[in-house]
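Handout, page 2. Input:
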Amino acid sequence: MKTLTSFLFSEIQETLSSLPTVSEERKEVLQPLIQYTQKKLDNKEAINLNFICTHNSRRSHLSQVWAQTMAYYYQIPNVYSYSGGTEATAINSTVIDTLVSNGFHIQQLSNGKNAVHSIKYAKNISPIIGFSKKFDDEFNPASAFCAIMTCSQADEGCPFIAGAEKRVSVTYEDPKLFDGTPNEKQKYLERSLQIAAEMHYVFSSIKF
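Output:
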């Protein structure tokens, strides 16, 4: 399968060279997402992925960004990655710092409590627009999308996602647990690399 390594920012390429191994257990968890993506691709339909967590501040953003990046890396067409929450808050500042350390180029486009960010992974590609929003915000797809639940709280507390044609549970431990501790930076990095590795596995498994 062809990849677009040469077009990714070099710092992201370095991050990809040191991703952790995806366990067999996690591969099983990711299989429904792979199957959904493969089916949409086979049917030549848009692949709309909405990553959902409670506050849309940490795990859902990391998942959105890495999914879009890996789809580009593996040249999977018509992938549109989104994120949302059961409520809107703001992208956590340590998430932004972590993505920058992973090699993404980020600009803050607005001020205020819920700032909007431009997140780029390659020079000639439109940026991901990152800000906190509810999963059914007008910025996100209203129908024909896969709802990927990235935290157990949202998964359990939101049993019905209007417009979703498939719902997949791919939950991650919340790095928020380490906010304000000496391990904060490292735990956010670990979570980002785990998500990167798993999105890498998902899109490397797609055949076309």
